[in-house]
């Protein structure tokens, strides 16, 4: 694999997909859903068929996590992807958080109630 500077992400994919995910959450009585970059084996190298984060958000970076709630959505990335995430993710849907300074587990503990 060779390095490229072309953006592989697509911010336009998120709106309908997040809407469908939110419908599914409501239908199943769930408050939110976490989408990691890793595959089902927690592998670092993700095949296209397992690129769930890219499918949902449009983000093509190699590190990230999305949290989708009924009324809000967040994209967690590390410092390497500060610029890329803003090009590839719909910022009207996702608020950007630091994967390092405010990891998803900490964010959940600090921002969501128990239950």
Please describe what this structure looks like:
The chain is 30% helix and 17% strand. The chain has 115 residues and is of the alpha+beta class. The chain has a single domain (11-111), classed as Creatine Amidinohydrolase, Chain A, domain 1, CATH 3.40.350.10. It has a 4-stranded mixed sheet with strand order 1-2-3-4. The mean pLDDT is 90.
Task: Give a quick summary of the entry.
This protein is an alpha+beta fold and 115 residues long. It has four helices and four strands, in the order H-E-H-E-E-H-E-H.
List keywords for this structure.
115 residues; alpha+beta; Creatine Amidinohydrolase, Chain A, domain 1; four-stranded mixed beta sheet; 4 helices; 17% strand
For the record, the CATH class is Alpha Beta
Work out the oligomeric state of the chains in this entry.
single chain
Tally of domains: 1
Unreliable spans: none
In terms of topology, how is this protein built?
Layout (H helix, E strand, L loop, with lengths): L13 H14 L4 E5 L15 H6 L7 E5 L3 E5 L4 H7 L5 E5 L5 H8 L4
Parallel strand pairs: 3-4
Antiparallel strand pairs: 1-2, 2-3
